[in-house]
Specification:
Radius of gyration: 28 Å
Strand order of the largest sheet: 1-5-4-3-2
Order of helices and strands: EEEEEEEHHHHHHHHHHHHHHHHH
Pfam families: MFS_1
Subcellular location: Membrane; Plastid, Chloroplast
GO cellular component, one term: chloroplast
Number of strands: 7
Keywords: Chloroplast, Membrane, Plastid, Transit peptide, Transmembrane, Transmembrane helix
Structural class: alpha+beta
Distance between the termini: 68 Å
Membrane topology: Multi-pass membrane protein
Number of helices: 17
Strand content: 5-15%
Helix content: 55-70%
Amino acid sequence: MTAKAFLLPHYSCSPPKNCSSPRRNLNCHSFHYTRGRGPFQYVERRNSNNSWKVWADVKSKPFKIAEDPPISDSLLRKKEDGDNLVVSQEFPKRWVIVLLCSSAFLLCNMDRVNMSIAILPMASEFHWSPTTVGLIQSSFFWGYLLTQIAGGIWADTVGGKAVLGFGVLWWSVATVLTPIAANLGLPFLFVVRAFMGIGEGVAMPAMNNILSKWVPVSERSRSLALVYSGMYLGSVIGLAFSPLLIHKFGWPSVFFSFGSLGTVWFALWLSKAYSSPLDDPELRPEEKKLILSSCVSKEPVKSIPWKLILSKPPVWALIVSHFCHNWGTFILLTWMPTYYHQVLKFNLTESGLYAVLPWLTMAVSANIGGWIADSLVRKGVSVTVIRKIMQTIGFLGPAFFLTQLSHVDSPAMAVLCMACSQGSDAFSQSGLYSNHQDIAPRYSGVLLGLSNTAGVLAGVFGTAATGYILQHGSWDDVFKVSVGLYLVGTVVWNAFSTGEKIID
């Protein structure tokens, strides 16, 4: 026989801390807590207005409370917050920031690679030599070089939101102006392409600064992989759609259409993004607590300890390795469609479509590498070991597959070698590209600007040198230089890099 005495006091305090068996009822927005053991139990219930009802239950057999319907982990995110159970259906804001950064870099590479396709009809129309084409391609890097360190300092001191927004808007305008400058003459085209480089030059340091504040260490490789996947997908979209637009509307249409997309992104960025979790008034408290407890870089930097930074061997390992990596990457970025057209005898449309495959491979393999790296971090593997393994794959993989290009006898095999080369190259996102936030999280923007300056120099010299080599040599000579630098980078990286923080 069961006797129940119902107590109905209302109070606003939290349930006792030694409550057991918390139960939730999502339909009536209330929480139940059962205390006591055996036949002597009482249950506390909180209504949606934060009031509580308590009843005691004395019975010969345990009183069974109806089970709540199962809750899908894919829809709800649960986290203990003190003594209360927090249930949320919101998408994490830090991943909104990551996706916005990824879309910015998608536009970045769309606007960059369209020239590698458009340059073919442009060179035919304006009668440019291979050397002139190389100078036009490299002029982008003149502006890109100027803003690497400046962009890093700017982002670390004033915040990444303003810097990245400025960069996207600036390079979008320059993209739209490219056809006009080409018709005015080479000097104007050089200047506009350099201006475009200025805008894209600040983007990477700004992104690195933002992610160092928004993303915990255990999610670092995956977040960077997703951002750089945006770059690779931008190359895919640019290379796939540029030939179609050129064939239907002429080569100027590529620059007009791609450049105009930047204004759409800029409007979203202004309304959704913040430089830091501390600046976001709508960020949920539990996510803010998670981010701030895991991220080191919280406040803007007041001054840059240049002497300390430049005295560290791992910093120089980053600089040298970035140079060696970007030499090969930028050559393939700017000259791959020309290689397909001249060596493999593809037409303009085929050159663009086949050039898509390596970048699509990079988008996939970068995320695979990021997932592997973050999984190893969570399992306790040394970050130093992880970064060295990933970057070694990013160096030796491309080196091996580029050496095979001189031995293949079919276009299909050549395209496969290119795809495998770029696919293994993408593991660098979990290697050197993640390392800036490892060794100097507070100065990650500056450090990326510093190392990427070396990478841009590789783009300037490598892109221009490729045009000169092709005029006096062959594609085999171009690939041999890249392979040699990949091997140098492997030695330097494994000898001097580290995954530990070396600068506070």
